[in-house]
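Blackboard transcription, Thursday session:
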Amino acid sequence: MVFFKFTLAVFSIIITGYAVLRLFPGPKKELPIGEILCLAFGMGVGFVGLEAFLLALLKYPLSLGYLLSFQIAFLAFAALKLKENFFCYRATSWHRQRLSFSPLAIFLLAIIIWEIAYVFLKSSSLPFNAWDAWASWGFKAKIFFHERTFSVYSCVGFPGFAHPDYPVLMPFVETYIYFFLGQVHEPLIKLFCSFFYAATIALFYYQLRRLFKVEFALGGCLVLATIPSLVNMASTAYMDVPLAFYITAGILYTWRYLKEQDNFFLMFGAFFIGLGMWVKNEGFGFWAALLLSCLVICLLFKLDSNKKKFLSIVAFIPALIYLPWLLFKYYFGIRVTYFQGPAGNLLELIKQRLPLALDIWVRHGLDIGKWNIFWVGFIIALVWFLIRPREKLAWFFLLIIILQVGFYFTVYIVWPMSLADLELQIFNSVDRLPLHLVTLVLFFICLQAGDKWRASC
Amino acid sequence: MVIEKKLVVMIFCIWCILAFELVLVQARQTFNLLLPIYPLSLEQKHKLVDGNFYNFVKQCAAGVGERENIVFKSLPREPDFRTPNWFLKEYFVGKLSYLLYPRKILRGQGITAEPKYIIIFDTDAKALKLTDR
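(Written on the board underneath:)
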């Protein structure tokens, strides 16, 4: 019964996301049904989380009744507006999608499906067993569920209650699922979070498939799906994989706009970056990195699109989506602890902390048990790109990666804490922060390495 | 171009060989660990994660009203900062706070009235005890 209720919750999220998707003008070309499903899932999660946040802010008691009635009203509006077109999306039909997979493709697909099944099983087998899953996210969701209001800040200072400055989108989504279930059920929340792992792989596949043959696209997805750190993190209910999903969608769709000039992708890229900022604070860094990268691309490359419109959308839509949380934090005086002034002379800090952070990151990155040969592959692709670039516009990804890593290292340098504490923090974060970048790094590698496997159409 | 293609295929093959080891570990874990615990009840799964600590949580939840406050104390002394005992205490107090919510766990500062319930962490015995005044 509880699983049936969980399925209903997921269905309600996807159908709401689909309605949001349908209210916007569709893409010029048809999208595969799987890609639409991923987009609807991401949009639905964003809708549900923001809906709960706004209702709580307006002092409505948080309950399934209120949340669902708001959603049903929205769905009715969408259905009335679109009438019989509601379910007629510009999607590639199942019939036309049918492909003749080679034995190699079937083998690659089988391993990817195994990985996804393993992550689903692992996540749903046990309750939260990783610290941040309950301290940073689950605790907030439990408080919302019991109090039925946004009273989280009366609980700051409780033992175990961590990071009040983290955005509350995902805790609200967890609460939404608890309302459906009528109870706190940690294994199902872990299962829900692992859906982002599957959705990230699926979205990545669809972006690769547009450019490359099916075997190469599946090979890329196999690499993504078997990164040991990603597999481990996908089943913990940490929010790094959901963030990676939104960042992947946001940046790859922005890239797709650069290649295809379809406004649909620009709009949804910007939407997903905005939602990524609502998932974790690191999302803000990605927005800034994307904006700077777009600016450099506009300055250095000749683009067919309207550069002003492009930059305005990348700048303002994510900012508008994030604005309520920013205002909320400002109003309640919630500060991000990293930037409350450096702990000493900046040059001294750089000399002291940068080598430490670099040492830990490099040693960790070369650990085959955690990353396989992912970062070695990236270095080879990077050198190859610098010597003979296959796609000059791939600087777009490279700039984002460099800027985001720079952002993480800046935080390490200015974070006001002792060196011993910082070392602990770097060790704690070194298996997660690079995860946000893996899809971008892998897409960059594929652009450079996949020339021989380009799709003919 | 041919060398580049061979290089890509070679790196991918190395990846697959290393990933195969990961898949084998996962398969072992799936059949030996995950599939047997999957059908367990939520209660049993919690016990698997937290063992006796979860039994203690259940005991506290049964004995203390839903909106009561509980004070957490370490006796006979606070464990030294960053020793394994300190980490254990932080884990206990944090997870108790999470698992026992809406009961509120308080410690040290901010406690004005005489507490009705106290959870004591015996630092020497590494054991938890609930006392009711």
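Lecturer's comment: The mean pLDDT of chain B is 88.
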